[in-house]
Each structure stands twice: as structure tokens, then as C-alpha cells.
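Pilot study result, target chain (190 residues):
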Amino acid sequence: MTGQNEGGGGNYGGDLTVTKRDEVYQFSWKSGDKTYDGVGVQAANSVGVSFTEGDDGTGCGVVLYQIEPNGTLNGKAGYWGVNQSESETATRTSGTDLDGAYDIKGSTPDGKSYEGKLTVKKQGAGYDFTWNTGNTLKGFGIRGANMVAVGIGGSKCGFVGYDIQGDGSLQGKWGSAGSTDVGTETAKKK
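Predicted structure:
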């Protein structure tokens, strides 16, 4: 894989290994003397990944939403160390484009149903996401054409949204909580 750091902070390269783990994927990067590990979910031709430095991504999660023409967000989530995915539907109740308030309904990886509220607000190069289902959870995401990849886990967890190309390569944009600019990455199969 090759990429460019946020804000034009220089180029990088290395190896990316993707391993299927039941309903989610483990993403493991090696770039120079650094390693990163994360969890990813796929929906159609998009992949969302949350990652952290090192080989233990505990506390990192990702939600990949497909943005429907009517503004509904259909999401699939994964959490590091959990091999099952979560599903969520967010129906917009106010706002325009991606910004706004949503009613959410979902099912956790262990099959429990939940309901609540989601607020999405434009911030820098991405969007702040705040879920309230009795507890509050915060994330930050970047938008592609018809998807948004949201990283959960605070400042220790970065995230990337990839589009799967016709040749199987991954074309992505990445960042972290509060990013004012995004990095890019291309991963090609060996």
C-alpha cells in the first residue's frame, strides 16, 4: 500500500494484510518500523475500518453507513476483537444532506435490539456523530459518494473509508477524530 499523510504530511508505503474474521475483517498494516491493527466491515463496494497503532485495537470500532437517496443511513458496525457485526438504520427526522437528527434502530453483535437518537454535525474534514441509546457514544467520520465511514474509540483510533475498485484494489481516505484534513491510501493485491 501507498499513501499520503493528512495535510500533505508526506508519503508512506508498506504492507497491508486483510484477514476475514467471521462477519468482520482484521486489517494489519506495517509501514517502516510501525504497525497498526484494526477492524473493518464491508457493505457493497465500500469498506470502513477503525484502527490504532500496535497490534491491539481494543476499544476501536467502525460504522459504515450507506447513504440512501431519501437520507436514511443503513449501517454495519464492527468492533475490534468481536467477530460478529452489528446493524443499524438511522432515519432522518430533521436536517439536510448528512447533517441532522436521526431516529435509530439496531441490533448488537449478540442479537439484542436497541433504539435511540443520532446527531450528525459537519466538523472540519468530516462529521461528528453522537449516538444516544441510554448511553452516549461519539464518533468521527468522513464521507464518500454514497457512504460514510465512522471511527469510534476517541483519539487513539483512526479510521479509513475504502472504495473497492474493479481490480480488487482499495482506494481510501483516512483520518482521526477532529481531522481538519484527510490522508489518502491505495492498497493493491500482491
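One observation from the pilot: Residues 2-187 form one domain. A full batch analysis is planned for the follow-on phase.
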